[in-house]
Design a protein that fits this description.
Layout: H1 2-28, H2 30-34, H3 41-62, H4 70-92, H5 101-126, H6 130-153
Helix pairs in contact: 3-4, 4-5, 5-6
Length: about 170
């Protein structure tokens, strides 16, 4: 009899927990849509260019004063990384039209590689390694024409300008 009671208690507890698990699973799935709404090509261009405009404005603000030392360079690079990551995050939240998906993914990938180089520069500045800092900066500059071309292929106007941004 006691064993039956324990089994009934466990079954009731399981029945109480299952709906909570189902609700959490549904909520975590983003209501089945992946959390992204597909945008038109024009909306993609407008929203990406807006993110790039904000990024470029922030870059100009951050770079208004040249860093006086390695510590300042590290702080400045960290702020630049954050601005670039914010723009990339905004763009990553966009779901491009199927016809532009491959180009958009290539552009975001190029941006992310550039951000990785910027982070290497930040690490180098924090370690007072001017050579590695210069190498990282040169890598970002060297790949800028490729990012500019990818942005232009998507019809991005602001993002395809070489204005010191990623």
């Amino acid at each position: 009899m006691a064993r039956v009671f324990v089994l009934m208690f466990r079954a009731k507890r399981l029945l109480l927990v299952l709906p909570a698990i189902a609700i959490l699973a549904f909520d975590a799935s983003g209501c089945g849509g992946g959390g992204k709404d597909q945008v038109t090509a024009a909306e993609l261009q407008q929203k990406a260019d807006q993110a790039c405009q904000e990024e470029q404005s922030r870059f100009r603000e951050i770079q208004a004063t040249a860093p006086a030392n390695a510590s300042d360079a590290a702080d400045q690079t960290k702020a630049l990384v954050q601005a670039a990551e914010n723009a990339s995050s905004t763009m990553s939240d966009l779901e491009p039209p199927d016809a532009l998906r491959a180009k958009f993914d290539a552009y975001l990938s190029a941006r992310n590689r550039s951000i990785d180089q910027m982070k290497k520069g930040q690490d180098a500045a924090e370690n007072q390694d001017s050579h590695a800092y210069g190498v990282a900066q040169a890598a970002v500059v060297k790949t800028a024409p490729h990012r500019k071309k990818l942005a232009g292929d998507l019809g991005f106007k602001v993002c395809s300008r070489n204005a010191g941004a990623v």
